[in-house]
Amino acid sequence: MGTSEPVDDADPADVADDCVTPLCRLRRAHEVVRVERRRTADERAAFTAFRSRVDAIPATAAARTTSQPIGTRPTIGHGAPRMGTELLAVRDAYQSTVMSVPHYEEEYNDTYAASLAAEFGPELAAALTRESVFHEHVRQSVLEQTTVAIETRDEFETVLDREQESVRAAVDELHSLDESVESLGETAVEQQDFGALDAHRARLEVLERRCDEVATNRQEERAATERSMHFDGETDDVQTYLYQDLPVTYPVLAAVAAVGRQIGAVRRDVERAIIQVAGDEA
User: Fold this and answer.
1) Which neighbouring-strand residues pair with 60?
2) What are phi and psi of 121, to 5 degrees?
3) Count of alpha carbons within 13 Å of 160, Cβ hemisphere only?
């Protein structure tokens, strides 16, 4: 890749702060995806371990009454009811798995109750933090919601694998294009005859088409990804989510545009030289 990789828990946004060129930022984007992929895998493994722990915790089969919805209890005196041994075991299991992934504090930094509400919904979170008994129907809900959390992360891993490969391919192709146009740009066009200049122009047209193909492929991949993922109202798409801390939201397209501008500038120089040679020969 041409850049050093950050340590496992490093934030890619803090790596290579002097990285200002589009291609350099594109490499940083690749690091962002790599880190997100690892974190997603860690979370999936943590939820899998949590599910196994909960599966081994016994629960009471007593049904809740219709007057007491899940997560609520009648007020008796002051304060919340004391959590039973099983609920304490659930809490310990959650804290030692889900809340113990290496990036938890950096990315979430919330409480047990807040994390439960975010992952399982407020009703189930209340049942696990405000009840005194771990009812069987609550246990089953926890197992079901944990499975959903695992499956969601498994799906996101697939998306991240595709994104990582897409960015890697774009880096390789745009780096090749950048080197080619830089080489052509260093040619002293004013010293070339018409045939050489025409060959340069043809080569630049090929580079332009390759650049357009990178952009087209990227847009098609983005559309396919958005069809497979559903984001909340605060996030527009996968790239907005992944690259929100980088200078550009769409680093591949930004790099394509930058290389395209380089090609256009060199092509204008070549075309001006062609016009000059044609005028001299007239």
Assistant:
1) 135
2) 100, 155
3) 22
Place of tokens 């005194």: 132
Query: Pick the residue with more confidence: 240 or 51?
Result: 51
Q: How many residues does the chain have?
A: 282
What six digits make up the tokens of 43? 């979370």
Q: What is the C-alpha R_g of the chain?
A: 28
Q: Is 71 helix (H, G, I), strand (E, B) or coil?
A: coil
Model pLDDT for residues 165-176, shown as the tens digit of each residue:
999 999 999 999
Task: For residue 211, give every residue at least 6 positions away whose Cβ sits within 8 Å of its Cβ, in sequence order, or none.
Answer: 174, 177, 256, 259, 260, 263
Quick one: tokens of 180? Answer: 């080619």
Nearest-angstrom CA–CA distance, 12 and 18: 12
Nearest to 89 by CA among 132, 129, 135, 54: 54
Among the residues of 56-135, which ranges form H helices? 85-96, 104-107, 112-120, 122-129
The Cα 10–Cα 31 span in angstroms is: 10
Determine the Cα–Cα distance for residues 282 and 277; give it in Å rounded to an integer.
9
Is 90 exceeded by the pLDDT of residue 178?
yes
Number of H helices, E strands in the chain: 9, 0
The tokens of 272 are what? 């001006």
Query: Token digits for 93?
Result: 């299991």
